[in-house]
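Table S2 (text version). Query chain:
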Amino acid sequence: MAKDQTILFHSTIFGPIHSRRLGTSLGINLMPADGKVCSFDCIYCEAGYNAQGAGKAGLPSREKVKEDLERKLSEMHSNGDPLDVITFSGNGEPTLHPEFGGVIDDTLELRDRYYPDAKVSVLTNSTRIFDPMVAEALKKVDNNILKLDSAIDPTMRLIDQPASKEFTVDRLVEALKQFSGTGIIQTMLLRGTHQGRKVDNTTPEEIDALLKAYKEIGPKEVMLYSLDRSTPEENLQKVEKEEIERIAGKVREAGINVMGF
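Corresponding structure-token output:
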């Protein structure tokens, strides 16, 4: 069963907030402030389904993002506020912004000026890493966090609901190899049902497929997590920390680092 759930962020810059994985984080939303634009339509997305529409505000310009970010960083710096990370997330997929590369360059420049010890992170669903300009921009940031929720196509399609029919696990894993040693692979673990179909990416078959994919990709780290907020699909269940830790143990046994949670 689906429920009404709408966009989370009504501005370009939001926070700072405390992220359970990243610390004190200032967010950047490159999507509309009154709608959602994404190349996935994940059944667990805290911002809701794409059906709510893209709104009327449009995407913020590169100039507006830079201006708003500089204003906020200057204010925080003057107040002596701490900052661990600047994180691109928001109401959809940040790499869909046509000036994504330029925005990353501006952000790194401002970070170096105001908070040189802070990290810059991008949460991406990995659908745009086939574009060389997007890939090069992602390689510049400190935490390039790339989505891989399942290494089995039907499960990936059920959970992530990619807009492109040509988006497959095989193509994705091959493209993710370019971030070997630098990228962080993020996997949402969950189970339940969606439109009468069973959802579970924690089965032995699923975990074996993920382990094989992780080994092929060779990431800097893997980030395993589960539901923490309300989701548009009501029939989903959180995977508890103890079970995630057991799965993490298998990933570590395969010689792959797992980010703490």
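Notes on Table S2: The first strand starts at residue 13 and ends at 19. The radius of gyration is 18 Å.
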